[in-house]
Design brief:
Layout lengths: L15 E6 L5 E5 L5 E3 L18 H13 L9 H17 L4 H16 L7 H10 L4 H17 L21 H10 L2 H13 L3 H5 L6 E2 L4 E4 L9 E4 L2 H8 L14 H19 L9 H15 L4 H8 L4 H5 L12 E6 L2 H9 L3 E6 L2 E7 L1
Antiparallel strand pairs: 1-2, 2-3, 4-5, 5-6, 7-9, 8-9
Length: about 375
């Protein structure tokens, strides 16, 4: 919230906002004009003069802040604290615009990375030079440009974005056996997450937001009640295996995976995936990401349902069928071999379905099922 008492000791601006508490208990402030941080106890902090205009309400303060942000009065070589302050302001604006924590974190990570590599966020040409010099994969360069483009438009910085384009390529669809091997090689929390993503096709953010009340242990129902990107909530009939894995996790708070952040889960997963790939001598495992499992689930369901896009659309929680079509690539599986099984009664059939088998036909009163190897 804005401070009505202090001027910035760096530039004299009254656009000073409270910015948390220091370890010694003193109030910390942030100057929205120059990005300088200071504490209330500093001798340099002075009271505003009567001639200076002081914000009388939060609404008016926000208006003044917007006016300050949109003025391009900064020189091309802004100070480090100034740049840092602008990034903080930008991320806070994204928060107010309703973007998810993960998206905000991605924006902040890329902007800080560009600055660390030598880009001056006030000078678009230096940003273009830094991006061009990197050996990043094309999707990373596209994301870096999109991130700065959002930053530039927020502060009215004029620039001509470079034309990077992600080349079209066939999607990577791992074998189910590879996914299962990776799940088995990971730790308790990561393996449970991977199994949940495999069976539901949920986004990683949706899975991290799942609560204990979203699990029906009696009927093996898992609910996605916090959909991302404006999607629909949905429910899934999951396997006994997944329910047992979830139930074995520590019940630290209301969320199944506790307060684990996306960055923490991703870091743990990447390390365990690397070790599993080396141990199993299968480099393909390193291509599996959280989103790969969503892609895999959508593609499998698309083929299983005979190309019925609406079924896949409902499973993914999409509101627009155009988004669903991204996941329904007509791919040729690397392995068309199947495990087969026979069920003599309803109970045996139910158990086969819960373990991933799909019904093929009935012969001599025996139900035949199959599952891709």
């Amino acid at each position: 919230m804005p401070s009505l008492e202090l001027q910035c000791p760096q530039c004299g601006s009254t656009e000073t906002w409270k910015d948390g508490i220091r370890n010694d208990g003193s109030q910390r402030y942030l100057c929205r004009d120059c990005g300088f941080r200071f504490s209330q106890g500093l001798s340099k902090a002075v009271l505003p003069s009567p001639q200076r205009r002081v914000c009388e309400s939060l609404t008016e303060g926000s208006k003044n802040l917007t006016e300050v942000e949109t003025r391009q009065e900064k020189p091309a070589g802004g100070t480090a604290s100034d740049i840092k302050g602008k990034i903080v302001e930008f991320l806070w604006q994204l928060k107010k615009d309703g973007l998810s924590e993960r998206t905000i974190d991605e924006y902040g990570r890329f902007l800080k990375r560009l600055v660390k590599l030598g880009a001056n966020l006030y000078d678009p040409e230096t940003v273009k030079e830094v991006v061009a010099q990197q050996t990043w994969a094309m999707p990373t360069k596209v994301l870096a440009v999109a991130t700065y483009d959002k930053f530039a438009s927020t502060y009215g910085i004029q620039w001509k974005p470079p034309k990077y384009k992600i080349p079209e390529s066939n999607p990577f669809i791992p074998l189910e056996a590879e996914i299962d091997a990776l799940i088995a090689a990971c730790g308790k929390k990561v393996s449970t997450m991977l199994q949940a993503l495999k069976e539901t096709g949920a986004r990683i953010g949706e899975a991290l937001a799942m609560k204990w009340i979203d699990v029906d242990l009696e009927h093996n129902i898992l609910s996605i009640n916090n959909p991302e990107k404006g999607g629909h909530p949905r429910q899934f009939k999951v396997s006994n295996k997944l329910v047992a894995m979830i139930n074995a996790l520590p019940k630290e708070n209301e969320k199944i995976f506790g307060n684990t952040l996306y960055a923490t889960m991703e870091s743990n997963f990447c390390g365990q995936r690397k070790r599993a790939s080396a141990k199993l001598q299968n480099p393909r495992l390193k291509q599996i990401t959280f989103h790969t499992l969503r892609h895999w689930k959508a593609t499998i369901e698309y083929h299983k349902n005979g190309g019925k896009l609406l079924e896949v659309m409902r499973m993914l929680g999409h509101k627009n069928i155009q988004n669903t079509m991204i996941y329904t690539h007509l791919v040729t599986f690397e392995n068309d071999d199947y495990h087969t099984a026979v069920a003599k009664n309803v109970d045996e059939a139910r158990k086969l379905i819960e373990t991933g088998f799909e019904y093929v036909c009935t012969h001599d009163n025996l139900m035949i099922y199959r599952k891709r190897k």
